[in-house]
Each structure stands twice: as C-alpha cells, then as structure tokens.
Amino acid sequence: MTHSTIIMVAVATAAFFAYKCKKVTLSGALAGAFAAYLIYLGGGDIALVSFSVFFILGTMASSWKKSKKQSLKVAQENDGQRGVANVFANVGVAVLLAIVGMFMSIAPPFLSTLMLAVFATACSDTLSSELGTVYGKRFFSVIDFKPQRAGKDGAISLAGLFFGLMGSLAIAAVALVYGLEYSIFVVIVVSGLLGNILDSVFGATLQNRGLINNHQVNFLATGAGALVCWLMLLFL
Questions:
Q1: Dihedral angle computed from the Cα positions of residues 25, 56, 128 and 84, in that order, rounded to the nearest 10 degrees
Q2: What does pTM read for this prediction?
Q3: Which of 100, 96, 74 is nearest to 87 (CA)?
Q4: pLDDT in tens, 99-150
C-alpha cells in the first residue's frame, strides 16, 4: 500500500469518526475529507498534520463549556457540528493554495508555510472565540476599544488574545517538529495572530454592516494570514 493510499484511508476514517461523533455534518465530513486530501497533495504531510491539529483543537474548544456558551448565546450553530460552509471558511484558502501548488512549480516549503499560516489563523481565531468568551472578563472593540458584550462581532478580550496566541503557537510547533527553521516558526506565529486580529477587524466593520457573514469573514482572515506570511517571507 502506497503512502498516498494510506493517507487517503486515514483521512476517510477520520472523517467517518468525526461524523459518527457528531462533530461534523455528513456534508461537512465529505467536504473535510476532500479538502484534507487536496491539502496533503499540495502541501505534503506537514500541511495535513497542521490541518489535523487545527481540527482537533478547534473541536475540543467548541465543545468546552458548551452550556455557558449557550447561556451567553455565543455557542456554535447546529450544536457545534461543522458543515461545508465551515470547511470552506476555515481551510478554503489552503485548498486553493494546494491546487495552485499542484499545477504550478512552487517550492513545496514555501507553499506549505503559507498553508500553515492559514491553519494558524483559523486555529487562533477558533480558540480565541470559543475560549475567550468563556474566560474573558472584559470585552472591547478591536476598532475603538469601547466596551462590548461577549460574542459581539469585533469584540476581543485579553483572554481571547492569549488563547489565540496559543492556537497559533500550536500550528507553528508543527513546523519545528518537521525541522523547519526557527524563523519560519516565528513567521507562522505572527501570521496566525495577526490574521486572527484582522478577523475581528473584518467582523467589526464589514460584518457589523451586513456586508458579509461570519464564514466570509473567516475566509478573508485566513487569506490575510497567508498574505502576512508571504510578505514576511520576502524579508527572510
């Protein structure tokens, strides 16, 4: 059995168990499995592992203190089950990068680093939102720093920023495990955290005005995280 076949079986198995555990919808499981395999083809093992770390941490964070989130009316819709829209919003940019990488001669380390920045942004945002609303004490607007309620689009807290940093660090740690330079680790951490902050900026401006929805905010933010990563790599 080839390595690629093993990966395909592993991805399908993981998607099946995620569906049976009611962490994703059926369509979400299928879309997630398809996205994961494309990410593997375009970015290799390191990209797939990073995607897996994001999914595991994001799922755990969404399930944590669910009753409190429901009382605050900030719990994930569909009882926390991820669907196709969630897949597209969080890893759509990584899938696009993977497709570009498969059809163009882009150096794999460069491409996989951009993809890790996407996952770092998504993980940072998810942990910031899911855990920041639970443990945050004071919430304020990312734009003018005025007090806001927990869960308000564009509202941030110190706790949320801390958990966001932890999410970005978790993805960046994968880069170290795979032997990438420490400078790449720093780039991924910074890209993920800035992408998370830009997510709040997009929420406070575009989403609050009804111009885009939350999924589109996440897609833009992950794209911004990849862009920040690319700009930083230019100076290395």
A1: -20
A2: 0.93
A3: 96
A4: 988 887 666 688 999 999 999 999 999 999 999 888 888 998 899 888 888 8
How would you classify residue 145: left for phi > 0, otherwise alpha for psi between -120 and 50, otherwise beta? left
Element of type H or E holding 171 = helix 158-177
Encode pLDDT of 203-232 as tens digits: 999 998 989 999 999 999 999 999 999 999
Angle at 38 between CA 103 and CA 185, to 5 degrees: 90
**Could you give the 3-state DSSP secondary structure of residue 27?**
helix
Residue 215 burial (10 A CB sphere; 0-12, 13-18, 19+): middle
- Any idea which residue has 């007090």 for tokens? 147
Cβ(51)–Cβ(119) below 8 Å: yes
Distance CA 218, CA 195 (A): 9
CA dihedral 91, 96, 98, 103 (to 10 degrees): 170
Residue indicated by tokens 């900030």: 74
CA distance 82 to 75: 12
Sequence-ordered list of residues with C-beta below 8 angstroms from that of 5, at least 6 positions apart, any chain: none
Q: List CB contacts of 109: < 8 A, sequence separation 6 or more.
A: 180
